[in-house]
Specification:
2 strands, 54% helix, 164 residues
Length: 164
């Protein structure tokens, strides 16, 4: 029995009891009026029943879609698994900023190291000047080498020999 059918039945019952007695009490009259107003209102929209989109198959331990899904992907490709979560990830802890004094110390240390590297490079380059190949050596390499790659390797070996 629907709600409207129940209201109509109650209305008929209340009206008959009033007619038998010849008059209706105030309470009965108010109930009759309320039932008539409720029946006059348009029905509430009915929400459609929800349909599941997928089922968990406990026996096979897998997810099965409720309706056939067509992914239009090649079957030879191994697609990565997509993780499903019940809640968003917890927020990462906020990193506290490094104090300005510590930053200043690190910056000074970096400049000191850079200065030391420049000085060391300068000292090495003064103590060991670059020695290149003479034309005679280049022609010898070109005559011996069968390919460009061999010529490059032989040139590199000769320069290393002279500068180390």
């Amino acid at each position: 029995m629907t709600k409207d059918e129940a209201l109509k039945l109650a209305l008929v019952t209340l009206e008959r009891t009033g007619n038998i007695a010849g008059f209706a009490h105030e309470r009965e009259q108010a109930a009759i009026t309320a039932i008539k107003e409720a029946l006059a209102q348009p029905p509430l929209p009915v929400q459609p029943a929800q349909e599941p989109v997928a089922y968990i198959d406990v026996e096979q331990r897998r997810l099965q879609w409720a309706k056939p899904m067509n992914w239009n992907t090649p079957t030879t490709v191994n697609l990565p698994k997509i993780p499903l979560y019940t809640a968003p990830p917890a927020p990462l802890p906020v990193q506290e900023p490094i104090s300005c004094a510590r930053c200043k110390d690190l910056e000074e240390q970096a400049y000191d190291l850079l200065g030391q590297l420049k000085v060391a490079n300068l000292k090495w380059s003064v103590a060991h000047p670059w020695v290149g190949l003479e034309n005679k050596e280049l022609f010898e390499i070109l005559e011996k080498a069968n390919t460009r790659y061999q010529a490059v390797e032989m040139t590199e070996a000769k320069l290393k020999e002279k500068n180390t």
